[in-house]
């Protein structure tokens, strides 16, 4: 297959003709089948803490949002979720949280060791911008993967929606390189339709996925949260309509399909944000346009409602058994199968083998 170049990426992003887009969907689905197969792996998502020390302009967990009750799960509560994850056929637990410095390095390291020794699961962390020492310690404790979206490759736009910690500049790209050097399976991604994000920015994002040689890539539409500056229209100004990227399902699907073409061996989830825009159909839309991963939410009910990154977050019904049963039906309904085992990224395996 020919390598898709930057101008083609931007051309496809701007394409509005449904019949021509059909060609993109078919290409992405064919590359997905050829490179990562028909298996869809389940990742159990556990939202371990909604404390956050940052003030991102888009996220409902931002420190300045005093309207949510904060929680931090205990080791035992998380281990219980991990055991349930195994019973439900998930090969990985994804521990996600706000950037909560109350989740100390040692606390996280001990949790990882316990999961790895007591339960057969791969461990993915998504705990924000943490220090190199912490990332190293967690890798040594047995963490396999780390997710940190760069959100947008437009540095000016990123700076406007993501205030740095005092005295520091946030360089997520540098952290991604560190993660890779530490031997993590490394994941990133972007939001689609941030006010001020142009088609050209989005094409740059997809190019950056390729240049970073990512193992996992999660993308989803930006969904305004009323308790945030962006949700109140106080963030960056939208661009003129022909340049502003819309935060809709079609655009998110184009990005997913192009991501599959530029990173054929990566693991790509069909994200919750996509399902939120199209309840009952968003997961499928992603799976047939390049995605091969689903992340069922296993956060216990009382906490789950408080992990409101954006409003209306689709996370299945509250009963995890039913949530996973429903996802399994939806996966097999597409003629795909539910993956067994850890579901490591084929891109990571290729790199590890030095190919
Ligand atoms: N809309 C969509 N996605 C969001 N995220 C945070 N806030 C929002 C929002 N309002 C995404 C970011 C972050 C991930 C955990 O959730 O991309 O990296």
Question: What is the string of SSEs from the N terminus onward?
Answer: HHEHEHEHEHHEHEHHHEHHEH
Secondary-structure arrangement, i.e. CATH architecture: Alpha-Beta Barrel
Shape: globular
Largest sheet: 8 strands, parallel
Report the structural category.
alpha/beta
Oligomeric grouping of the chains: single chain
How is the CATH topology named? TIM Barrel
Q: Whole-number radius of gyration?
A: 19 Å
Strand % is: 5-15%
Uncertain segments are none
On the 0-100 scale, what is the average pLDDT? 95
How does this structure look, described?
With 355 residues, the chain is an alpha/beta fold. It has a single domain (6-348), classed as TIM Barrel (Alpha-Beta Barrel), CATH 3.20.20.70. 41% of the residues lie in helices and 12% in strands. It has 14 helices and 8 strands. Strands 1, 2, 3, 4, 5, 6, 7 and 8 form an 8-stranded parallel beta sheet that branches. Helix 4 (105-118) runs parallel beside helix 5 (132-141) and helix 8 runs parallel beside helix 9. It is globular, with a radius of gyration of 19 Å. The two termini are 18 Å apart. 5'-deoxyadenosine binds next to loops. The site of 5'-deoxyadenosine has 12 residues, from loops.
